[in-house]
Design a protein that fits this description.
It is built from 13 helices and 15 strands. With 348 residues, the chain is an alpha/beta fold. It has two domains: 2-154 and 295-347, Quinone Oxidoreductase, Chain A, domain 1 (Alpha-Beta Complex), CATH 3.90.180; 165-291, NAD(P)-binding Rossmann-like Domain (Rossmann fold), CATH 3.40.50. The mean pLDDT is 97.
């Protein structure tokens, strides 16, 4: 099979590899579509993991083979693949901190080498733990592989929305109108709240309005805080979702979030970034700072429901499609997006 192997920082090698062999409790999936995620790009561009590895985790495909002990799944079934499933028994899991679970972190789908997602390959192997505990999700007949590849990123965004306790009637500031920010706007609207978006690219500001934002502004607008306060009866937004790793966006969030509001970090910042803050700002205004990383097992069924019943329009997020052979080109486009670049999908 063909695969894109990470051989070092910014080094992807399109190689011929053996199709993974199965243990009795494992399943082999032929990858039809895999989304290109910002976390994949980060792993390719920075020295975070020892090579060789095969990344890619927003995977949808067809079951190509099953181990001898697998009973529930059959060859030919269309499935979305979750690349992590928690143990459900450790102290983290018992507190709903599933993404902190060692099993969640260390057992993953693989196309070879150290298990790292494996979606950037023609075939990916699903370990028994993931097969047995809900990591394969049947795709309804009316849903495309493209749509199904959004189940995992929808879960990640949904986790942040739930963690921030966004409820009907609230106003939410979404900083950044890339694919993640646009999905946040859709989810915020779906749950009955109002979204205000910011971005630096005019077409993305327009796109934010098209997918449901109540208002959208250039993040460089010197009157941004005044305009947002004008839209919120002088109070500020209830919640800010930081979908870009920008210290400037954070300080805008402090200015635009009401007393008693929440600011949630969703985008991962470079490790060298430090943000100085006077703690009395948080104390006196009772601002809650929180982070949301990865997906939540508890929200898996809801994420699938939202995608499979088209409660949000994930097709509106797709801008580019690349063959697996052209993954490096896709990564370069994601790093330096055009005015019309949103979600990029890869086709093994």
């Amino acid at each position: 099979m063909k695969a894109q192997v990470f051989r070092g920082v910014n080094q992807l090698s399109y190689e011929e590899l053996p199709i993974p062999t199965l243990e009795a409790d494992e399943v082999l999936v032929q990858v039809r579509v895999v989304g290109l995620c910002q976390s994949d790009i980060k792993k390719i561009r920075y020295p975070l993991y020892e090579p060789p590895r095969i990344f890619g985790h927003e995977t949808a495909g067809t079951i190509a083979a099953v181990g001898s002990n697998v009973r529930k799944w059959q060859v030919g079934q269309r499935v979305a693949v979750m690349h992590h499933i928690p143990c459900m028994r450790c102290a983290y899991c018992l507190n709903d901190n599933f993404s902190m679970c060692d099993v969640y972190k260390n057992i993953s789908t693989t196309a070879g080498f150290n298990p790292s997602g494996g979606g950037f390959a023609e075939y990916v192997k699903v370990p028994g733990h993931i097969v047995q505990n809900g990591g394969l999700i049947p795709i309804p007949n009316h849903i495309t592989f493209e749509e199904a590849s959004f189940v995992e990123p929808t879960n990640c965004c949904l986790k942040a929305v739930k963690k921030a306790n966004i409820v009907p009637g609230q106003t939410v500031l979404v900083t950044g109108a890339g694919p993640i920010g646009l999905m946040f706007i859709m989810l915020v609207k779906y749950f009955g709240a109002k979204a205000i978006a910011t971005d630096l690219i005019p077409s993305r500001i327009e796109k934010a309005l098209n997918v449901g934002a109540e208002a959208a502004f250039d993040a460089r607008d010197t009157e941004l805080t005044t305009k947002i306060h004008a839209l919120t009866d002088g109070m500020g937004v209830d919640v800010t979702l930081l979908a870009v790793p920008s210290d400037k966006a954070f300080f805008q969030a402090l200015d635009c979030t009401r007393k008693g509001g929440k600011i949630l970090f969703f985008a991962e910042f470079p490790d060298e970034v430090e943000i100085p803050i006077n703690p009395n700002i948080l104390y006196r205004r009772e601002i809650d700072l929180m982070g949301s990383y990865s997906s939540s097992y508890r929200l898996q069924s809801l994420a699938a429901d939202i995608v499979f019943n088209r409660r949000i329009d994930v097709n509106a997020l797709i801008s580019d499609r690349y063959s697996l052979q052209d993954l490096s080109q896709a990564v370069n486009q994601a790093i330096a997006p055009t005015s019309e670049t949103y979600k990029i999908l890869i086709y093994p």
